[in-house]
Hints:
It is a single chain. The protein is α/β, with parallel strands linked by helices. The protein contains 10 helices and 5 strands, in the order βαβαααααβαβααβα. A 5-stranded parallel β-sheet has the order 2-3-1-4-5, with helices on both faces. Helix 2 (34-45) crosses helix 5 and helix 8 packs across helix 9 (148-164). It starts with a strand and ends with a helix. The model has no long low-confidence stretch (mean pLDDT 96). The structure holds cytidine-5'-diphosphate (CDP). Cytidine-5'-diphosphate binds next to helix 2, helix 5 and helix 9.
Amino acid sequence: MTFTVAIDGPAAAGKGTISKAVAAHFGFAHLDTGLLYRATGRRVLDGAAPVDAARALQPSDLAGEGLRTPEVAQAASRVAADAEVRAALVDFQRSFARRDGGAVLDGRDIGTVICPGAEVKLFVTASDEVRARRRWKELTEGGHDVSEAQVLADLRARDARDADRDAAPMRPAPDAVLLDTSTMAIDEAVAAAVAAVSERFRGS
Length: 204
Ligand code: CDP
């Protein structure tokens, strides 16, 4: 059985938490595709050329410590604008999406480019301020010394770069279910996502 759930949206909208919960609920595998770009960005910060860095990625790179920093996030969105970098990462993502047993992939272009035939597509958003507050909390709880204003500026810069690039720009697929989590508690957002998947999964 194959079944793909594509979850896209801007930075810190809640995609990660929702994707993990949906995957756990249905027993699907989960791939955070942002980690592919973060790991590529990390290698570039260490001196590699972007396309070589993407081609050389190993599964162990995705588990690496330190991929969740603001510096790596910005490096990720810079390498992510490179069409050759993106092309180097397509096959891995598509194979993951069609693995036996079902898969949830979260990112920016899953429903539009990587898996346009995904059985379910969600586009998760929240206001800039809500997203910045959530990311600031995560970062400060993880020991990073950063102001909320700086986190907001970083998110906006990254969203603008991700939405305006020529290669696979971030945008909702025409048939995506939009989920604005600005005023939702996390369990409400998860319940809404699970409901959207249930509608299609029961019938498949
Ligand atoms: O966790 P957060 O939403 O802040 O970011 P992420 O999902 O880890 O993605 C980091 C960066 O990778 C994004 O800002 C994008 O530039 C890039 N990315 C992408 O271009 N396409 C994807 N499918 C996933 C991430």
